[in-house]
Each structure stands twice: as structure tokens, then as C-alpha cells.
Design a protein that fits this description.
eight-stranded mixed beta sheet; two-stranded antiparallel sheet; 47% helix; globular; Mal/L-sulfo/L-lacto_DH-like_sf
């Protein structure tokens, strides 16, 4: 089925509210999913893969700073989706890069890492060059690099397959962000690297996807759309129950 950008963003926001996100966090998370879907990067599918994790997460377990200095910050995402854990990390890296020219932020123990792209798009729009890197554990072992030029809302995305997995390889559930005030950071690898390029999405391709989606609508899987509607319905049910509970309590007090 096809829906408009506003319909997708609105339903996702209600679904995140149903999961238990605060209003501001729900709106941010919805923007991230809609942004990815609009650019042809399968944001709704990525969200669907991580919904079971989101439903099981403890919202009280907040992202924690493990170490930081003027240029570097290391954070523990507490095993949460980036939709819960990434806002602090990105703003921290942005502030350091503004002050020092360059910053590196490492977020450990986080998932749904694809969904970080919308957050980075916002920072790029504020004049920051950004590269995000992470390694996926599935076979074949892959590494993904996402690069934004300052002032550009659309990234360049590359996915590589590692030919020879090192013996010391360990599972990686983190993400590394590099931000630079005045230096472009888009990745460029020569033929001598032990990597095979699996996918390359240049800025122009993603921008064309966005233009088409805004004009003709965004394609969304029917089953996933129904699941989001179910989650969105939670907040309505809980609000109605709370209202009825409040009214009942008032009658009892008058008795």
C-alpha cells in the first residue's frame, strides 16, 4: 500500500507513544523511520525487525557516558534501539566537534543502527560533516559506512563484505561516529583493501527516491502497517481507561 509522508510519520509517532516513548522522543523516532522510508532505505522494515526489542526494553535504563574528554566520548546504549539511545550521543559529538573541530563518539550495546541516519541528517543540515561506521555480525561479515557532507540532508551509503575475517574478530553491537566542522569525511577505498562493495547508494539516488516518494506516496507493507496501527491503538485504549478510572474515582470520593 502507499501512504503519504505525513500519514507514515503520524502513525509511527502514535505507535512509539503506545510503546511508552515520551512525546518528544516519539516524534523524533517517527521522523527517523519516515526519513529512511522516504529515501528508499526501508525504515519501516528496519523498525519492524526491532519492534520486539523495543517492546522489551526498560525505558528507565538511560544511555550512560562511560568516558569522555575534549575530542572523544564513549557511551553505553544499554542494549537499546538507537531510537532510544542515540540523541544524547549525536548532540554530544556535535558539541565537541563545534568546539574542537573534530570529534569521535562510540556508542556500545545498541541495535537498529540503520535508523541513526535520520538523526545524522539533522546534524549535517546544521553544518557538520559526519561519517558513521558499524559492523554487522551476520554472514558474510559486513561493514557499513554512511557519510554526510555539511549542509546536505542526504548521505552516501556504502556496504562492504569483509573477505578475510580476522581471527580476533568479535561480535560488534556498537557504532562509531566521526564529526568534523570543516573537513569532508566521505569514505573512499582503493582496490587493495580486503573488502567487496555490496551496495553503494550515492546522494543523487537517495535524493531521487525522496522526491518520488513525496510525489507519489511511500510504499509500506500491509502487515507492518497493521502492526503499527495496533501499537498506536494502545495509547488510545490506555487514555480511555485512565479517563474512566479517573471518573470512577471521583464518584467514589463523593460517596
Amino acid at each position: 500500500m502507499k501512504v503519504s509522508y505525513n500519514e507514515l510519520q503520524g502513525l509511527c509517532r502514535k505507535a512509539f507513544s503506545g510503546i511508552g516513548f515520551e512525546d518528544g522522543d516519539a516524534a523524533d523516532a517517527a521522523d527517523m523511520v519516515a526519513w529512511m522510508q522516504c529515501h528508499g532505505l526501508h525504515g519501516v522494515e528496519q523498525l519492524n525487525r526491532g519492534l520486539d526489542y523495543l517492546l522489551a526494553e526498560d525505558p528507565e535504563a538511560l544511555t550512560r557516558v562511560i568516558y569522555q574528554d575534549g575530542d572523544l566520548a564513549v557511551l553505553d546504549g544499554q542494549g537499546h534501539s538507537v531510537l532510544r539511545s542515540i540523541s544524547l550521543a549525536t548532540e554530544l559529538g556535535f558539541a565537541k566537534a563545534r568546539a574542537r573541530g573534530l570529534s569521535v563518539v562510540k556508542i556500545r550495546r545498541c541495535h537498529n543502527r540503520q535508523l541513526i541516519m535520520g538523526y545524522l541528517s539533522r546534524l549535517a543540515g546544521r553544518g557538520m560533516n559526519i561519517t558513521a561506521f558499524w559492523r554487522n555480525a551476520q554472514e558474510p561479515l559486513t561493514e557499513q559506512v554512511v557519510g554526510f557532507r555539511a549542509g546536505h540532508s542526504t548521505p552516501e551509503v556504502r556496504v562492504y563484505s569483509v573477505r578475510d575475517v580476522p581471527e580476533e574478530n568479535e561480535p560488534n553491537d556498537g557504532i562509531t561516529l566521526v564529526m568534523a566542522n570543516h573537513v569532508e569525511l566521505l569514505p573512499s577505498l582503493g582496490a587493495d583493501h580486503d573488502l567487496d562493495l555490496l551496495a553503494h547508494h550515492p546522494e543523487s539516488e537517495l535524493l531521487a527516491c525522496r522526491q518520488l516518494a513525496l510525489k507519489e506516496g511511500i510504499e509500506v507493507d500491509d502487515a507492518i502497517w497493521a502492526r503499527l496501527k495496533t501499537l498506536a491503538h494502545r495509547i488510545l485504549v490506555e487514555s480511555s481507561d485512565a479517563s474512566r478510572g479517573g471518573a470512577g474515582a471521583g464518584v467514589n470520593d463523593n460517596d
